[in-house]
Every structure is written in structure tokens, then in C-alpha cells.
Design goal:
10 helices; single chain; mainly alpha; elongated
């Protein structure tokens, strides 16, 4: 049992809550509103997590399926003609070494489970002439509802990769245009699978939480805030 009253100031200092409230949103450096922003950021990040998870998994499996078909083997990265960029190749080698170190079987499924979203997005980038070697003959088919060029899709996915990393590492996301991020994630998910798109949208809490975004104190004072 606690013998003293809960101190929101102590909590705010412990979690560095001040970084989650936009500049000018608090009426004083020690305003209790700092915890409202912190709590809302936790909620909105939590709401984005399932959407980004569905996007990442659908992207991974769709791209892997196309690459497996193209190169005729589940470990498509070891095909002599794929010629991956050295950074991507290095990530695969590192995963294989980790599996051996942890005494796990080095299977195609095990390797692909450990590949990050950044790895898959990079395969849609310029790479080593990925435009003509991977995108045109192969990877464009992973996005059956997309009819545009590679570059805009790559740019959109790279922005979503950045959002995903901020969410995963518990960094502030409130300064982003989150409504646009949500639209982007659903748009790309729809390119991959309309079924997953519709299923994910059915349980989406993001619009409600965006409507509940905290407002600035009145009046909000300009100037630097106190470091907690």
C-alpha cells in the first residue's frame, strides 16, 4: 500500500513526459496537462500498432511470395542472379549468424521472420537497379491494386516505416499529420489486399482518438519549458 499521495510531477519527470506535448501547449512548465498529452500519445500509438502490424505482415508475405516464384526457391536471397545491395545482404547474413548462435535452424521462414520492415521497403528503392531487375518483372505484382510507378510507392512506404519505428520505440508521433498517416497506411494496405484492408478498418480506433486529441491550455505561454 502506498503511504504518500501520487505525484504526477514525479511521474512526468520519470517518463520525460514533456517531450510529448507540443511547444506552446502548456500554460506553465509544471502544468498537469503534460500528462494528458503523454497519456494520449500512448493511446494513439497503441491504436496505430495493429494497423502497422497488418501492413508489415501483408507486405512481407506478398513480396516474399513474388520473389520465391521469380527465383524458384524459398531462400530467394541466395539465388546467384538476385544481386542484392550490400546493406540488405549484410542484414540477411547477420540474421543467419544469430540463428546459428542461438542454435536455431536456419530456414527461409526463420530468416524472413527476423527481417525488418526497412528491409522490405528497401527492395522497392533504387538499390542495384531494382527498378528493372526486381520491380518491373516481379515486385509490382505484390501490389495487385496499384497501377502507378515504383518511386511514389517507395516514398509512401518509407514514411510509414518511419512512423512504425517511432511507435515501436515509444517516440512522440503527435506532431505528425496522423490522419494522413492513417490514410496512407490504408491506401498501401489496399494495394496489397483489399480483404486485409477491410478487416483492419472494422476495429480501427484511430479516428475516435484523433477527435479526442488534447487541446492547448488557455492561455498558453510562449517560451522554453522547464526540463523535468
Amino acid at each position: 500500500m502506498r503511504t504518500q499521495e501520487l505525484s504526477l510531477g514525479a511521474v512526468a519527470r520519470a517518463v520525460r513526459a514533456e517531450v510529448f506535448s507540443p511547444p506552446g501547449s502548456l500554460c506553465s512548465p509544471e502544468c498537469d496537462g503534460v500528462m494528458r498529452w503523454y497519456a494520449w500519445e500512448a493511446e494513439i500509438a497503441s491504436a496505430f500498432t495493429p494497423l502497422l502490424r497488418h501492413l508489415e505482415r501483408t507486405l512481407r508475405h506478398a513480396m516474399a511470395e513474388q520473389l520465391t516464384a521469380r527465383f524458384g526457391r524459398v531462400d530467394w536471397w541466395d539465388h546467384p542472379k538476385i544481386d542484392l545491395h550490400h546493406v540488405s545482404r549484410g542484414k540477411i547474413i547477420a540474421i543467419q549468424k544469430k540463428l546459428v548462435r542461438n542454435r536455431r535452424r536456419v530456414t527461409a521462414d526463420a530468416v524472413q521472420r527476423d527481417l525488418t520492415l526497412g528491409f522490405w521497403v528497401a527492395l522497392l528503392g533504387p538499390g542495384k537497379d531494382y527498378e528493372t531487375r526486381l520491380w518491373r518483372p516481379t515486385l509490382r505484382h505484390a501490389f495487385p491494386s496499384y497501377r502507378g510507378p515504383r518511386k511514389p510507392l517507395y516514398k509512401e512506404l518509407d514514411e510509414l516505416r518511419e512512423l512504425r519505428n517511432h511507435v515501436a520505440h515509444h517516440e512522440p508521433i503527435g506532431s505528425r499529420t496522423l490522419a494522413a498517416d492513417r490514410e496512407s497506411a490504408y491506401r498501401v494496405l489496399g494495394y496489397l489486399s483489399t480483404d486485409v484492408h477491410d478487416w483492419a478498418a472494422a476495429e480501427d480506433r484511430i479516428p475516435q482518438l484523433l477527435a479526442e486529441r488534447p487541446t492547448a491550455c488557455t492561455p498558453a505561454l510562449p517560451g522554453p519549458r522547464k526540463e523535468f
